[in-house]
Amino acid sequence: MFSITLGSLVKRIVAIPRAFKMSDLERILSNNKAAEELLNSLKLELKTIKEEQVQRKIAELKVENDSLRIQVEAYKKKLIALEVAQGKVQIPVPTPEEVLAGAGPASVVVKTETAAPPAAAAAPVKVKVESSEAAATKPAQTPKQPNENKQPKEKKPKKEKPAGEGKQPAAASAAAEEPPIDVGRLDMRVGRIVEVSRHPDADSLYVEKIDCGEANPRTVISGLVKFVPIEQMQNRMVVALCNLKPAKMRGILSEAMVMCASTPDKVEILAPPEGAVPGDLVHVEGFPRVPDAVMNPKKKIFETVAPDLKTNGQLVACYKEGTFVVPGKGPVKAQTLANVQVK
Are residues 154 and 138 in contact, defined by beta-carbon separation less than 8 angstroms? Predict the structure, then answer.
């Protein structure tokens, strides 16, 4: 009845755990393989995302570089046009290809040789005219005095008038080199109010310390107490006019002026574009930036420019048709005041 031998029974008992062990091992290997495949897939996706981000950043930088290059070329052309109008000789700079080819320096030498003779030729013409006039007057005197002993007297009086006449063209050329009176003569920069308090001797004035990207903040007196709460002044970004002659206001020296859009009833501080930092220069499109170190009050530069400083319909500060901009960052704007005076 019981025909199972002891040996076969042992074999069956041993075979059962082996079957269980093999299935567990196969499952573990299968899970391990699936995990490796998932890990490789994630690595590939991460690599693809990184490459896409790099390419996107490269494209953005290329667009930004192209924009900056166009702006630089535009300002360069305006500067060259201004220099040409003032009579300055333009000498072309050789390109890297011309330098490698050996043609660059030769082209520069040719330009300098052709540019120099007109100036040199202009001076001798004036001297010849003066000498011819002198010669025209002297022969009229020689027939009356035929004695040859008086000829040295004719040579000696080299009248000093030509020297005086030479100084006048020099003064005229110096005046011609002065830039025209426009907004380009104003040194406007981005600043940040790092400290503000009420003026001890004037209820309507603030005393501000403004960081304009220099070694020390500038002290600025502003009549904004009635229009801007002191809480809104602290750490505020502004546009500061930095080359006015410093002047005392109620005993405190003011070293700049905060530019604002203004009406009789409301005043708004002009806001630099997002991303601007203290010390950024403010340009006006169409007008090369050639600011005086300190504007001479006798020349009334700011008084001449001020009537054309306004905001346009888009709230952007303008001089005539040119808009205030921080290159590469954007325009300077008021908050709500359109088509009003800027001062």
Answer: yes
**203: number of Cβ within 10 Å:** 8
pLDDT tens figures, 75-102: 988 888 888 888 887 777 776 666 677 6
Question: What is the rounded CA–CA span in Å between residue 319 and residue 335?
Answer: 18
Contact between residue 211 and residue 217 where contact means Cβ atoms under 8 Å apart: yes
Neighbouring CB atoms inside 10 A of 265's CB total 7
**Cα-based torsion angle of the residue sequence 233, 239, 244, 249 in order, rounded to the nearest 10 degrees:** -10
Name residue 90's amino acid: Q
Q: Provide the whole-model pTM.
A: 0.51
Q: Which of 259, 267, 290, 276 is nearest to 327 (CA)?
A: 276
Q: What is the C-alpha to C-alpha distance for residues 246 and 219, in angstroms, rounded to an integer?
A: 10
Q: What is the per-residue pLDDT across 251-291, written as a single tens digit (0 to 9) for each?
A: 999 999 999 999 999 999 999 999 999 999 999 999 999 99
CB 286 within 8 A of CB 324: no
SS3 269: strand
